[in-house]
Amino acid sequence: MTLAPGIDLTRTSAVDLAAMIRAGTITATEVVESCLTRVDALDGELHAFVERTDDLAREQAAVVDAAFARGDDPGPLAGIPIAIKDLIATAGIVTRNGSVAYQDWVPDEDDIVAERVRSAGALIVGKTTVPEFGYSGVGHNPVSPAARNPWNPALTPGGSSAGSAVAVATGMAPLALGSDGGGSVRIPASLCGLVGFKASMGRVPLYPGCRDERYPGVSSWESLEHIGPMTRTVGDTALLMSVIAGPDPRDRHSLPAGDTDWIGCIADDSAEHVAGLRIAYSPDLGYLPVEPAVREVVAEAVTAFEQLGATVVEVEPGIHDSRRHFWPMVIADTDLVGMRNMVDEYGDRMSPHLVELIRHPWTAEDLTTAQMVRKRVVNQVSRLMRDHDLLITPTLAVPAFPVGMQGPELIDGHMVDSGSWLGFLNIFNMTGQPAISVPAGHTADGLPVGMQIVGRHLADGDVLRAAAAFERTQPWRDRWPATPSPGALQAGERR
């Protein structure tokens, strides 16, 4: 394979790759071979993928190249490699869900998003590492090696969309799909230096995930789950959203199409839309311990919005601390009978924290109290957003920490439970609001820190425009983890 001179395809955005393929500068086959070479070089250490689909990706690339040769248009993602989280059903491709109970499951139908990216011409390069059924904020499970953070492989990349983040952060794929029931797109985006977007509830339809009652574990999280892009640029996020958003009758929560111009959101005039916005900034939501390094990076990043002409006010949000009620909400969405039967059969080979959660003697009051707390939080956030167009927070309370932990127990000198580091996130799964994590900067030892931008209910365009404007003031696309340079890997060289 001979590449166009001077082009590192694994460090080229999806938007630029799509334009070059369409112009005939490169072929889909060249692009996918460069990504597969990158996977060969890095995945033995980083464990982004649990299932590689090299042959399928090559077949899809050949179809795209043949279509362009005939003068046909294969779609907006034609020739773009994509990694798909292993909680998202893919017809004909094993989908293990990080669990021994599904280690041989090959779905007979695609999840809606997988169906849509295939139809748009994307090239599926594999399924990515997840914690078991997504019930964790980190990326280890009983059936595959733990995913590793490319900025420091001794550390976690976060989860549950762990492998998807690692793949994009290292150039193994320019696009990935993740899912976010309590932060699981935004967590690894923050820890790996990526863009991770959770659109408004219903923008991206889900099925069979969360919807098909035949599959315990798979059918969980219905009132909280979102599927979203994981990319290196806001433009790539908008491109992928333009394909996966829009209604589907199989998802009763899906929203009508046509009220968000995804590509238009990131046009060059996005900064003009930020000028005059009223932005609330909260470094801790009023109750979360946050590591000083994170506070400093995000506080500095927020000033960019003032330079863009927005009014930024630090606020005490007045939002109830709902963290202890989150898991009862998940349980209320779960096939508890089916999951308990699964634990009876496979419990000694399942994740201990998941077994404990399923076996807990939940009461009706636990579940209904959680729902009342959710209503309270929705109302409080709604009142906050009446006076503000956007809310900005850190994405996480900490940078990356060692693999194998569920979370740090000490944050800024405070003893905390192992889920405290996630406290900025699941609120916006409860409310269904759009939220994005974008790279805000790095700690002194070089670890990425994410900044979360939250919009009003259904104001997805405002969130993407703000993220795009911020990206222009503080571009991050050329900062990569210190993995082997793609230039050191000769195109087409296979191990």
Give a structural overview.
This protein has a single domain, classed as Amidase signature (AS) domain (Amidase signature (AS) enzymes), CATH 3.90.1300.10. Helix content is 34%, strand content 13%. The protein has 15 helices and 13 strands. The strands form 2 sheets. It has an 11-stranded mixed beta sheet, with helices on both faces. The chain is globular. Residues 487-495 have low confidence and may be disordered.
CATH homologous superfamily - what is it? Amidase signature (AS) domain
Query: What does the radius of gyration come to?
Result: 21 Å
Mean pLDDT: 95
Biggest sheet layout = 11 strands, mixed
Strand neighbour order, sheet with most strands: 1-3-2-4-6-5-12-13-9-7-8
Number of helical regions: 15
The figure for the number of domains is 1
Question: Low-confidence parts, pLDDT < 50 over ≥5 residues?
Answer: 487-495
CATH architecture: Alpha-Beta Complex
**Secondary-structure element sequence?**
HHEHEHEHEHEEHHEHEHHHHEEEHEEH
For the secondary structure, the number of strands is 13
Q: Helix content range of the residues, please?
A: 25-40%
Overall morphology: globular
N/C terminus separation: 15 Å
CATH structural fold name: Amidase signature (AS) enzymes
- Name the beta content range: 5-15%
Overall SS class: alpha/beta
